[in-house]
Write a structure and sequence with these properties.
The protein is an all-alpha fold. The protein has helices spanning 11-29, 34-57, 63-87, 92-112, 121-128, 133-156, 169-219. 78% of the residues lie in helices and 0% in strands.
């Protein structure tokens, strides 16, 4: 990466631009055509997996790219949950606050820890056991995607009946993956708690830096 390169045209950013179109289309079809919405959702997941890897492959990793990618993830997840609340009015009491929490926790964390996207992992390592936070977060998010997708599909089609269990395949997949969704929700709440505890510390450091700079100017 050179100083003269236009980072807005880096491969990861281009993939994010495509994701915006795909995500908007998926949200448009989520309540009317579950097949198209499901396919677009899967395309979104593939592009989300590709952008970070493309940044490392082409040596185009930037702080803006990480923020852009993370922001798209949280905003899309939030709007997807709001769309699900239209499909499941009986669950709105949970889905709408969860959509708000998704965005609030993400941006509160990015404000509190501006220099590290994964700093929160240091505070939750005791919850993940021997699995590293990065791998655990990756698996949890993938399973949560499956949960959100199967919940949407289940409203229109339960899927083929699973022998012995007697329930639809999509319903079964939802029941299997929903614990990861609630685990992610718990981590988001902890993100808020940790971030709110860290913000006063950051503010104190900023004020001390301002006072130190003023003292140096007065000495001059």
């Amino acid at each position: 990466m050179k100083a003269t390169d236009n980072m807005y045209l880096f491969v990861p950013q281009i993939l994010c631009y495509i994701r915006i179109v795909v995500e908007l289309a998926a949200l448009y079809f989520v309540t009317s055509n579950y097949v198209i919405a499901s396919l677009l959702f899967l395309v979104h997941c593939i592009l989300d997996l590709m952008d970070g890897r493309s940044g490392r492959y082409f040596n185009q990793c930037t702080k803006f790219g990480a923020f852009f990618d993370h922001s798209l993830d949280m905003v899309f997840e939030s709007f997807w949950l709001l769309a699900l609340s239209d499909l499941y009015p009986e669950y709105r009491i949970y889905l709408i606050p969860r959509a708000f929490l998704t965005v609030y926790a993400a941006f509160l964390f990015l404000y509190s820890f501006p220099d590290s996207e994964h700093a929160f992992g240091a505070y939750t390592s005791f919850l993940t056991g021997p699995i590293t936070w990065g791998n655990h977060k990756y698996m949890m998010c993938c399973i949560d995607w499956c949960c959100s997708l199967t919940l949407m599909i289940s409203r229109f089609n339960a899927g083929p009946i699973v022998p012995v269990l007697g329930i639809g395949l999509w319903n079964l997949l939802f029941y299997i993956t929903v614990p990861a969704h609630f685990q992610k929700t718990f981590f988001m709440v902890m993100e808020c708690v940790v971030s709110l505890k860290n913000i006063p510390y950051n503010e104190i450091k900023k004020r001390e830096k301002i006072i130190t700079n003023k003292c140096k100017k007065n000495e001059i």
